[in-house]
Amino acid sequence: MVKHHLGITDYVVIGVMLLISVGIGVVAKYYGSQKSAREYLLAGKQMAKLPVMLSIIATGTSSTSLIGAPADIYKYGLAFISSLLLYPLGLYLASSIFIPVYYQCGVSTVNEFIELRFGKIMKFMMSTFLLLQMVVYMAVALYGSVLAFSAVTDLPLQTSIVSLGVVCTLYCFLGGLKAVLWTDVFQACLMFICVLSIFITGIEEGGGLSKVYETARAGHRLDNIFNPRLDFLERFNFWSCILRGFIAGIVTYGTNQLEVQRILSMSDVKRAKSVLRLSSLPQILLFAICLLCGIVLYGIYHDCDPVLNKKYSGLTKHDQMIPAYIVNKFSNIPGMTGLCIAGIFSASLSTISSALNCASTITVVDFIKPIFKSGQISDLKTVWLAKVLSLMYGVICIGLSFCFLDIQSLKRLSFVVISAGDGPILAIFLVGVLTRKAGDKLISFAFIFGITIISWISFGSLFSKYHQPFLPLSTSGCTSTENVTTSFNSSTIMTPTTNSKEIFILYKIAHMWYPTFGFILTSVVIFISVLATGWKKNVIPADSKCLSPILWKKSKPQNA
């Protein structure tokens, strides 16, 4: 693999993409209304279906999806694709169970619902957790795009981090949610162009679909897709993946402020449910193609792994394979490399801008507004507070990105940061909307217990430097280095050496199991606590607006 770099035309294309993103923020500020917090934070709840649908897709597709997921499939096989089987069901349940409740309650954040249902203590804990989660996730997303850029340019990492972070912070600061939504539309189109370009050209270079399939099968990349064997230590197992996909569908679109805020920008609950369900097919298609790109890359590099052959390729991490392939494949087409790299940048920008808007909304609505008595803080002050907070969180995001420069797996890091709390959070919200049981103190205890245990296991695993063994990787077809073939237990060739026997057993559990274990653990604690404090005790009335309409025996009008 001959190493190429970006050309002048490519830099121009990337620069134009960044300017357009900022331009959308400028247009949203000066040609749209930002006189109220509702307009700045929720786009006035008057958005059309198409931009919201594309924003949902763009926000759910980060740089991890475009470069981290294919790298994991390349190393561990395609079993992760089974997580898409029940993902649509989870999304459908989120639209039916949770979204109507938020419209009934008239809330701007999911944490406002938590306060209505469980009280201020639980709301404060949930808000704090989600805020910390958003800040770290922004930094991970920014690092992902810079990691991609480092594979194809000689620009210092520091320069790339600061430049991209400033652009994203700027248009989010200027235009609020409306700017984020319309920028996501533009960036979603670039993502599809990038992913489809890689997939189509990769299939051609790999010798066609049948050839890529045969190569992947011979390399054991297709072995565990539907393997019924239950294994808690296997990186991607059918059962862990399918359960993870189901929980992700419910949590992401039912309890995660990042996506819920987009859905709440619709004028009424019927339109909100419709746009969410319509977004499922293109989103699953985009992510499936991202995963299949990992198989395509294996079809190309199965006998000459570019990381094992790093002296020639210049790659030090498998997360750099996608951007490196883009440059090497499209370098003879002026601007095409820049367009694809812009697609990867778009994945990061859409995630970061959404998280910035989300973080500022949570801070203003859940932390600052409650300090003031009703009427003491004007809408204009609220908007400016949100703007200042966007700038502040942008600076924090840029600074925190430097902490992840030595991480080996972007996908694993992203999962630990954004998904480790999914199980406990889902348990809390389901109890909130489907039952009349459990009060503030009980739920707070269960949440702390579940989050503490899962965080301990997930971060303990991350910092233990334990790595599940890779599938075979080879350099037998390379002409520029000695031939080497890795075995099933030789992942230490590319990762820090660790003695598996010295690692605590819980740290070896595959991260795909964390949401399922977290949900079960928290649910059990809630159930036992409710039994101990009085099973017949109800803490909210039967007609509470906090209860999901699927529980109603007769339909009731739903407030827009």
Secondary structure elements and pairings:
Elements: H1 8-30, H2 37-42, H3 49-60, H4 63-76, H5 87-97, H6 99-105, H7 110-118, H8 120-150, H9 157-205, H10 209-218, H11 238-254, H12 257-263, H13 269-301, H14 310-313, H15 321-330, H16 336-368, H17 379-401, H18 410-419, H19 422-434, H20 440-464, H21 514-533
Helix pairs in contact: 1-9, 1-16, 3-9, 3-12, 3-13, 3-16, 4-8, 4-13, 4-16, 4-18, 5-11, 5-13, 7-8, 8-9, 8-16, 8-17, 8-18, 8-20, 9-13, 9-16, 9-17, 10-13, 11-19, 12-16, 15-16, 16-17, 19-20, 19-21, 20-21
Could you list some keywords that capture this structure?
single chain; about 550 residues; mainly alpha; about 65% helix; globular
Characterize the structure shown.
This protein is mainly alpha-helical. It contains 21 helices and no strands. It has helices at residues 8-30, 37-42, 49-60, 63-76, 87-97, 99-105, 110-118, 120-150, 157-205, 209-218, 238-254, 257-263, 269-301, 310-313, 321-330, 336-368, 379-401, 410-419, 422-434, 440-464, 514-533.
